[in-house]
Write a structure and sequence with these properties.
binds NADP nicotinamide-adenine-dinucleotide phosphate; Rossmann fold; 2 domains; alpha/beta; 45% helix; 288 residues
């Protein structure tokens, strides 16, 4: 079997196109453009590529984006978040991951005002996500971008989810955990695997849908997958200057029926979800 390659760009393009009218209406009503503040406290090839992609995408749809380069110090980051939170011209705030060692992700999440929380990680937005019982309800909130991107990609490819077995590998708050919740409310039976999960290969062998988000380059082998599995690879790793996912793409293509490439799969959709979150936050503040 040779898998269908599920590219992210067509869906990302569609999502971005659907924002154009809303951004124009926001500009007419508010007299300004929606604005995203990107706090960058780490400098490495993956984060630099991440920031470049966000800036380009914002410019393409007419969102004003500003990068705030910061020292990797929690106090300074929290103080900047406070300033951005009080700035009426800022609609969304994100802090680029990985977080500096000195910054506690929970304190950062608590500092970001829910009304400007473009990644859905403030306790109010994150809690609201996990209180949802239907996908429509979840999708009307501010969701963690990559988790939502993974599920939207599955839905765009019309992959059946209800009644299927799904294994999410990686249980981070930003990605694996909310992705598992969204699959769960879409009626998949979900295993949320992590670094202490015994016999990971057997959990994968039983999975109709695999979401890889463990941050280990090419870790998941094609021979571990169920024949015909649908594989969403959210991993972004830099190996010898090249970006690769958490799944060994070459071997997985022989077993999977559908697989996302890295780069070009989950990443572009994640960016489109971020844009959509910023526009939604801007609209909500205007209406408040
Ligand atoms: N596509 C995108 O736009 C996007 C956005 C965000 C992140 N990412 C990428 O997604 C990946 C995960 O990011 P993250 O922020 O969720 O990472 P993270 O916070 O480091 O979490 C990694 C998770 O993977 C688990 N894990 C690590 N090694 C494992 C193993 N050998 N077997 C099973 N589970 C294992 C960890 O388990 P424990 O909990 O037991 O430690 C943890 O739950 C990274 O490659 C990151 O760059 C992509």
């Amino acid at each position: 079997m040779s898998a269908l390659i599920l590219e992210g760009r067509p869906l990302a393009q569609k999502m971005r196109a659907s924002l154009a009218g809303r951004i124009a209406a926001f500009k007419r009503s508010s007299g300004r453009t929606p604005a995203l503040a990107i706090i960058a406290a780490d400098d490495n090839p993956v984060t630099s590529a991440y920031i470049r992609a966000k800036l380009k995408a914002c410019a393409a749809v007419g969102i004003k984006a500003a990068v705030h380069a910061m020292p990797p110090v929690e106090g300074a980051i929290l103080s900047l978040i406070g300033t951005l939170g009080r700035d009426d011209a800022v609609d969304g705030i994100i802090l680029v991951r990985p977080f500096p060692n000195d910054a506690d992700p929970r304190r950062v999440a608590e500092a970001i005002p829910p009304a400007k929380d473009a990644e859905g990680m403030s306790p109010a937005n994150y809690g609201a996500t996990f209180l949802t019982k239907t996908y429509a309800e979840a999708a009307s909130g501010i969701l963690p971008c990559t988790a939502f991107a993974v599920i939207e990609l599955l839905r765009s490819a019309e992959v059946p989810i209800a009644g299927r077995t799904a294994t999410v590998v990686g249980r981070s708050n930003i990605l694996g955990k909310p992705a598992a919740h969204l699959l769960n409310i879409l009626d998949a039976t979900v295993t949320l695997a992590h670094s202490r999960t015994p016999r990971l290969e057997s959990r994968l062998a039983a999975a109709d849908i695999v979401v890889a988000c463990l941050g280990r380059p090419r870790f998941i082998r094609g021979s571990w997958l169920k024949q015909g599995a649908v594989v969403l690879d959210a991993g972004i790793n830099s190996v010898d200057g090249r970006i690769c996912g958490d799944v060994d793409f070459e071997s997985a293509c022989k077993t999977a029926s559908v697989i996302t490439p890295v780069p070009g799969g989950v990443g572009p959709v994640t960016t489109a979800v971020l844009l959509s979150n910023v526009v939604r936050l801007a609209e909500r503040r205007l209406a408040a």
